[in-house]
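General statements about sequence and structure are easier to judge against a single worked case. For one protein, we set the task of working out the structure tokens from the amino acid sequence alone. This step matters because it turns folding into a mapping between discrete strings. The amino acid sequence and the backbone structure tokens for this protein are reproduced below.
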Amino acid sequence: MNIPSLENVVSAEEWQLRVNLAACYRLVAAYGWSDLIFTHISARIPGPEHHFLINPYGMLFDEITASSLIMVDQAGNKLNESPFIVNRAGFVIHSAIHAAREDVQCVLHTHTRAGVAVSAQKNGVLPISQQSTFVLSSLSYHDYEGVAVRDEEKPRLQADLGTADFLMLRNHGLLTVGKSIADAFLAMYLFESTCQIQLSAQAGGELTTVDPQILDGIAEVARTQTGGLGGSFVWPALLRKLDRIDDSYRK
């Protein structure tokens, strides 16, 4: 697909954000978390306007490039030329979070089998793995209200997320936020791993749970071990991995 490069059209800061967001889409595809074209990752453009980048609706995640990403405003208007539209459900969820969380640059949402399965379980995430302890340190839940196309759901999404970094959308999937794209990706890696481990453990017999005392203060441990869920530790290596596979996301 021939999409003109924006590298010399947008600012250097926006271009780097586009490259990182395109990389995140490619990594989500590489790790098997994509759902054809039906989920989204967004990144806030620095500035007071609250504009953000999101995927063109109709492209697979492993096709996304830096130049193909669409900039939208808080009303959902496209701010750069694209032959593609923006998915309404993706816009509602992501615009709600970007409007409420000034500290968040990136919002990442998935519909993985493991994530949806655990989101349908009454007790949600269980404290049965080391990965789950990181998630439980900053986890909230949002009840299912149907496909997220109604603006009236936004205040409830915002209230349910609060200051958390992990949001389980009941009967729907997983969502993470981060102060950078790298942070949001690493958070989703932990969230998805937590759900996969939980389903595997539940299939194997009686479960052993983590001592509640260990859960206390786990947020500080997370900051120590991962830089505050800071993908800065792992992001350069992930970009090298992508570049070895296919560096076309940079176009």
Q: What stands out?
A: The two ends are 12 Å apart (CA to CA). The mean pLDDT is 91. The domain at 12-250 is CATH 3.40.225.10 (L-fuculose-1-phosphate Aldolase). Strands lie at 41-44, 52-54, 70-72, 106-110, 139-142, 166-169, 173-178.
